Amino acid sequence: MERRYSIEVWIGNCGFTEIAFPTAKNAKIFEIIMDLTENQISKLIVDRSLKVHRALGPGLLESSYENCLYLELEIAGLIVERQKAIPIVYDNLTLKIGYRVDLFVDNKVIIEIKVVEKITEIHLAQILTYLKLSRCKLGLLINFNTTFMKNGIKRVVNNL
From the DSSP assignment, how many helices (H) and strands (E) are in the chain? Predict the structure, then answer.
């Protein structure tokens, strides 16, 4: 009989759920990743964003950077969801009306990827709205259409 290892994990607004792993090592790695703070996760995201930007440079489509960053974050061992739906709760009704974040990392950090000439107030308002709707505390607005990547990363906080 095959032994399975499981961990009970808090998933956002869903409550506790049990996740099974094939080995104790997999379970331990997952526990370490789940214990990362938003700041630790954001450092990994920034490092991997720099790597993607160095490899590809500016000027590609947003989807190219999204796919490459998704891959890099998964290689780093993070749990990443692409195009994660964010519902709106209005008058005690949950409306799934098509708001989607580009990347949702470890149920803690939202990444909104842009390929624009300049980050504007509306871009910042968009990610702040996503943070409020998802009840997350940290978001990164990453503009890959820049010569120096450090100028393309904006950190947005919601009660952090």
Answer: 4, 9
Mean pLDDT by 10 residues, the chain (160 residues): 57 56 64 76 96 97 97 92 90 85 95 97 95 93 96 92
Retrieve residue 62's tokens.
């947003």
As a whole number of angstroms, the distance between CA 33 and CA 37 comes to: 9
Residue 148 backbone phi and psi in degrees, to 5: -110, 115
Count Cβ atoms within 10 A of the Cβ of residue 123 and give its class: 0-12 exposed, 13-18 middle, 19 or more buried. Answer: middle
d(C-alpha 99, C-alpha 127), whole Å: 11
Q: Put residue 159 in one of left, alpha, beta given phi > 0 → left and psi -120 to 50 → alpha.
A: left
Distance separating alpha carbons of residues 90 and 110, to the nearest angstrom:
22
Contacts of 32 (CB under 8 A, 6+ apart): none
pTM, entire model? 0.78
Domain ranges of the chain: 1-35, 37-157
Pairs from 28-37 (Cβ < 8 Å, separation ≥ 24): 29/77, 31/7, 33/77, 33/78, 33/79, 33/106, 34/7, 34/9, 34/106, 36/106, 36/108
